[in-house]
Write a structure and sequence with these properties.
178 residues, alpha+beta, Aminopeptidase, 4 helices, 34% strand
Length: 178
């Protein structure tokens, strides 16, 4: 696997475009990362720009995976914005290039996020999952456990409401990256 990770790479114009392109491709292949397909880059761009602005400001962190210098995976480690929650972070927008699915890149970036969390001195990571996608099984295999579920919290289309599943990974001594 020729995947190399970078924590908080410099956010250049080229990286911004790669993030938008990856995000668009992931949504259009069925990925549950804040949108419902079909989308175009201009649909995704404002959310991507907002997410990257938080990284540039130092509020959030970006874990980016590159293959031969090209962005193929990413996730955001988001600050919770509350001092009573400063000991853990939320992972958002976990993405792998659809052309690279099945190569282990998803697990690799999640292990990289756990290692980054430990280096940051965090106790835990949280990720939320859109019900009906089966991705909770992926996270469970990485050591995350379901700690909550909000029924019908996500309306992906009229008449298609999905549960929001909250998954949690303790970082102290177990889980991915140990």
């Amino acid at each position: 696997m020729g995947l190399e990770f970078s924590l908080d790479p410099v956010v250049t114009d080229a990286l911004r475009e790669e993030v938008v392109a990856l995000w668009t491709a992931v949504v259009n292949s069925g990925g549950a990362v804040g949108f419902v397909a079909p989308v175009v880059a201009d649909d995704v761009r404002p959310t991507a720009e907002s997410s990257l602005a938080a990284v540039v400001a130092g509020t959030d962190r970006l874990v980016a995976g590159f293959e031969d210098g090209r962005l193929v995976a990413l996730l955001f480690v988001a600050d919770n914005g509350h001092r009573l929650k400063n000991h853990w972070r939320t992972l958002k927008r976990v993405m792998v290039d659809p052309a690279k699915q099945g190569l282990g890149y998803g697990g690799a970036i999640m292990r990289e996020a756990a290692a980054a969390g430990r280096k940051m001195g965090l106790d835990a990571l949280q990720v939320t999952v859109r019900g009906g996608t089966g991705t909770e099984d992926f996270y469970a295999r990485l050591g995350y456990r379901e700690v909550g579920r909000v029924p019908d919290a996500l309306r992906v289309a009229p008449g298609d409401d999905r549960d929001e599943i909250i998954m949690w990974l303790e970082l102290a001594g177990r889980g991915p990256g140990d």
